[in-house]
Amino acid sequence: MIKFPHNFYWGTATAAFQIEGHPEEYLGKLSDWSEWIDREDKVLKPTNNGRAVEHYQHLIEDINLIKGLNNNAYRFSFNWARLHRAPGEFDENTARFYDSLLEELINTNTKNRIEPFATLVHFVLPNWLAKQGGWENPRTAHEFKNFTEYLVKRFGQKIKYWITFNEPNIFLGFGYESGIWPPGFQNDWNRYLKAYQGLVLGHQLAYKVIKENNPKAQVGVAQNLYCYEPYDQDLVTHPWQSLDSVPNILRKQLHNHAFIESCVDLEALDFLGVNYYTRFSYQLNPQAADAINPQAPSIFWGELLDRAEKKNSKSKFNSLGWELYPEGLYKALTDKALVRLIGNLPVFITENGYCKIEKESEDLEDPERIKFIRNHLVYLHKAISKGVNLKGYFYWSLLDNFEWALGMNPRFGLVHVNHSSFARTPKESYHYYSQVAKQNGII
Known about the structure:
The chain is α/β, with parallel strands linked by helices and 443 residues long. It has one domain: TIM Barrel, CATH 3.20.20.80. Helix content is 39%, strand content 19%. The protein is built from 16 helices and 20 strands. It is globular, with a radius of gyration of 21 Å.
């Protein structure tokens, strides 16, 4: 038995737009994504037309599924677009939904309390702010502060852990580099930097207003970390023997560490959330074409190598083509640059999940997902033994859900959801993870 520390948090993670499916948001086009979802050139079918998996209608059933996992924590996100309709205007009916959610989580005896981890923004913007420039416009950061103040005053006594943003680096990359997410700009670095500054300002303002209203609250950010390393394993331990290390180091700094560093510099980070899925390897090739703009050279940005095409490759991949590399989570957490940056700051794995694309037939025996969870937990335990101040693990995700530009077909959930009837059926991985949480360890 590999045991985890006492009071370790075990949970799952979800996001409002990916599961709630309230018809008001889609039909009223309240958010940027409620419009973007109709873009057939950007979002794969099926999309369920904004219904997601109707968590809004299945709240109690889904909470009971969480309780059945023996989890002591649950990460969710507030729906900014449905809550905050206009400057100073907040929707009471939507707020009551979150009243119910939080009461179900914490209205038990102390031993069985499920600790809420609340994400304020999981990619989606109210449309009235998106139409005015989104995060490029400083007004959005200040309206975000007003939104945060409303939430902490309304729900602050029930929530200790607050996550301002989910994966600001992914939002920036997909929104301003590849253009596959709103606002849909390609390689627009001027807008990218303006939005980056807006996000940093938003985090700073939200951190301050949460602390002013509840000094004991803990405020962090959930950052996506990739394991960046050269394909040649000799260069992993001796990076400066080849210039192929350069694009991997540059990308690690910009993608993994830059936003964290901004938060640390502002003294506005109580814990770090880490979302980890895969590894990337780049090689230096100044002649390589840019992935988005074939007319532009990649220069030091590098050329992505496909490990599946390499001879004698032992790499395995999920249905999306993402390499399954559990050791990469250990490497990302123990990276010297990150350790210098955050010191002994508490760390939570706020997302980590296995995807399989399948037809509507229920694939309830999912040994690959069980193996995925176990292998990552083994390396997390190793990271703890190396001094990482790891406090919890949240599997992505509780439910099969809407996966942004990839539509409904990719399934990450511990619970299978029928896209027509919305019936929930736990998979074998659900029962496995329930035992992990119950015994606070893995066999």
